[in-house]
Design a protein that fits this description.
By secondary structure, the chain is mainly alpha-helical. 81% of the residues lie in helices and 0% in strands. It contains eight helices and no strands.
Length: 193
């Protein structure tokens, strides 16, 4: 989430839900897998042309994504594998929704939207990849205006209100700009070396 939004985000509801989940004994990894299943359902709905439902379900999946890490931290169950699982499933989550929209677009011979979906998918993956690779090299890379939470909200709301082309186009353009912002940030940290 963009740092300017993070400070305004109402965390009290998240803390309440996490405390309730902690009492049930559900594991953070179970929440991650549940989010993935929700994403698959969202992608299937999008592929079937049920875009409003796909958007609503994807927003629910995005909410689940906030819970797994928070639950892990609150219950002391953060693990290296759990972090990797969460990050990996997040990439799949984004991909299945965009693939669903892409499939629906192809069936309806909307080649422009197919291209936008491909660009959005590449941009979304590159935003995450550049950050992960930079951090793997020991650098910081928490910059950019369009991280995963923003992409989830734009796609979910866009699908729900019938602005799916606008939503996919925004993700296609701004996600790729964000990936470039992150590359530039790393370039500045390293002096290009």
């Amino acid at each position: 989430m963009h740092p300017a939004l993070r400070s305004r985000f109402p965390r009290h509801w998240l803390d309440f839900v996490v405390r309730a989940l902690a009492r049930t004994g559900v594991t953070p990894n179970a929440i991650s897998w549940a989010g993935f299943l929700v994403a698959v359902a969202s992608g299937a709905l999008a592929g079937s042309g049920l875009l409003v439902w796909a958007g609503a379900i994807s927003l629910f999946g995005g909410a689940l994504d906030m819970l797994d890490g928070a639950l892990a931290r609150q219950t002391g169950r953060s693990t290296v594998f759990g972090a990797l699982l969460d990050s990996s499933l997040d990439r799949y989550d984004e991909a299945v929704l965009l693939i669903g929209v892409c499939y629906w677009s192809a069936v309806n011979s909307d080649n422009t939207l197919v291209l936008l979906c491909v660009l959005a998918l590449v941009g979304s993956l590159m935003v995450s990849y550049v950050k992960a690779r930079a951090e793997g090299l020991g650098l910081t890379c928490d910059v950019g205006m369009f991280a995963r939470p923003e992409r989830v909200v734009v796609m979910g709301l866009g699908l729900m209100v019938g602005l799916h082309v606008v939503a996919v186009a925004l993700v296609a353009v701004i996600a790729n700009i964000t990936a470039m912002q992150r590359l530039l940030h790393v370039y500045r940290q390293t002096g290009g070396a």
